[in-house]
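Case study 2.
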Amino acid sequence: MTPTAVHRIMAGQDGIVTLTQALAAGMSRTAVDRRVSTGEWRRLHRGVYLRADRQHTNAVRLRAAVFAAGP
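Prediction:
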């Protein structure tokens, strides 16, 4: 898959994606790190990222915490 697939995931999750989801969608760890270093994504928790153009709302905080906590 492509970064477009990751954007689709983020669109359905308040702008959030996990590292596991990004890797499963075909992104490399380097590509994820590059998006963080350029400011395109913000790291909310270990392995949990938010698109920089999204607001850090309560819904985002809750979803990010759930993703960070794991199953």
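DSSP finds four helices and three strands in the chain.
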